[in-house]
């Protein structure tokens, strides 16, 4: 079965600093990969997704992620964080298996921004 | 479009009572998903529908939970009887066509069972 690991439960970054959130997946084939963001009291919003093609994917709010097949990773990056980026971030892997299609989410990484 | 609509936003009930959560997906979306989010277990898929038909309910925790989708614009998740361990935020999401499309999440229903 597919799985997603986000090794960092909580990350604190200074405003203006760069950010990298880690995500590793386990799946036999190339999966669909997603990053979602959840602000407090809100539902999840899609930041970006990867299905095929260019392994560097650009998303909303200045985020990007790079798919590395050899490392089974899909890390999220941002060159300079803003206070409004404080939220919880979820990596997800999607599989399609005999008509059963669903996402499996990681446990999330909570991002705190300090001035 | 108003996005995915969930009601109520907050529900407080007593153990043993029946709870019904409601969801209106985005018009035209073929897939509807119910998730549960807790601190201990994170975000879990409970069940999802395709064209109003339940496809995978393997995440439904036990027989006390049931979900229906009588038409393309409405779904319910029912817990009967409710227990304190059911306290969580329940999200509904919908998506267009197949898996490689974005899932749009509703704002969630925060359920507290006393």
Describe the structure.
The complex is a heterodimer of chains A (115) and B (114). With 115 residues, chain A is mainly beta. Chain A has strands at 3-5, 10-14, 19-21, 24-26, 32-38, 44-50, 56-58, 64-68, 73-78, 87-97, 100-105, 109-114. In chain A, the strands form 3 sheets. In chain A, strands 2, 5, 6, 10, 11 and 12 form a 6-stranded mixed β-sheet that branches. Chain A has a 4-stranded antiparallel β-sheet with strand order 3-9-8-7, with no helix packed on it. Chain A is globular. The N and C termini of chain A lie far apart (41 Å). With 114 residues, chain B is an all-beta fold. Chain B contains no helices and 11 strands. Chain B has strands at residues 5-7, 10-13, 19-24, 31-38, 42-50, 53-56, 65-71, 74-79, 88-95, 104-105, 109-113. In chain B, the strands form 2 sheets. In chain B, strands 2, 4, 5, 6, 9, 10 and 11 form a 7-stranded mixed β-sheet that branches. Classes of the chains: A mainly beta (115), B mainly beta (114). Chain A binds chain B through residues 32, 34, 36, 41-46, 49, 51, 90, 94-96, 99-108, and chain B through 4, 31, 33, 42-43, 45, 48, 55-56, 91, 93, 98-100, 102-103, 105-108.
How much β-strand is present in the residues of chain A? Answer: over 45%
Helix content of chain A: under 10%
Strand content of chain B: over 45%
What global shape of chain A is seen? globular
Order of helices and strands of chain B: EEEEEEEEEEE
Could you give the count of β-strands of chain B? 11
Oligomeric state? heterodimer
> Largest contact between protein chains?
A-B, 25 and 20 residues
Q: How would you classify the helix and strand content of chain B by structural class?
A: mainly beta
* Mean pLDDT score of chain B: 93
Largest sheet of chain B: 7 strands, mixed
User: Which regions of chain B contain 5 or more consecutive residues with pLDDT less than 50?
Assistant: none
Round the mean pLDDT of chain A to the nearest integer and report it: 91
Contiguous uncertain segments of 5+ residues of chain A: none
Distance between the termini of chain B: 36 Å
């Amino acid at each position: 079965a597919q799985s997603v690991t986000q090794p960092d439960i909580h990350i604190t970054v200074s405003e203006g600093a760069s950010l990298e959130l880690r995500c590793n997946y386990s799946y036999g084939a190339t999966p669909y990969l997603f990053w979602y963001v959840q602000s407090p009291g809100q539902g999840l919003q899609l930041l970006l997704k990867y299905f095929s093609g260019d392994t560097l994917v650009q998303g909303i709010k200045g985020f990007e992620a790079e798919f590395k097949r050899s490392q089974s990773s899909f890390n999220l990056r941002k060159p300079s964080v803003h206070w409004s980026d404080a939220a919880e971030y979820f990596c997800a892997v999607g599989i399609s298996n005999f008509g059963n299609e669903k996402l499996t989410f990681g446990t999330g990484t909570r991002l705190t921004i300090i001035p | 479009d108003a996005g995915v609509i969930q009601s109520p936003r907050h529900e407080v009930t007593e153990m043993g009572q029946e709870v019904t959560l409601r969801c209106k997906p985005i018009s035209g979306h073929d897939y509807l998903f119910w998730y549960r989010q807790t601190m201990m277990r994170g975000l879990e898929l409970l069940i999802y529908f395709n064209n109003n038909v339940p496809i995978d309910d393997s995440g439904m925790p036990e027989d006390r939970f049931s979900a229906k989708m009588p038409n393309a614009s409405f779904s319910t998740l029912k817990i009967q009887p409710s227990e304190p361990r059911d306290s969580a935020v329940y999200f509904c999401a919908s998506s267009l066509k197949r898996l490689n499309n974005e899932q749009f999440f509703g704002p969630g229903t925060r359920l507290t069972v006393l």
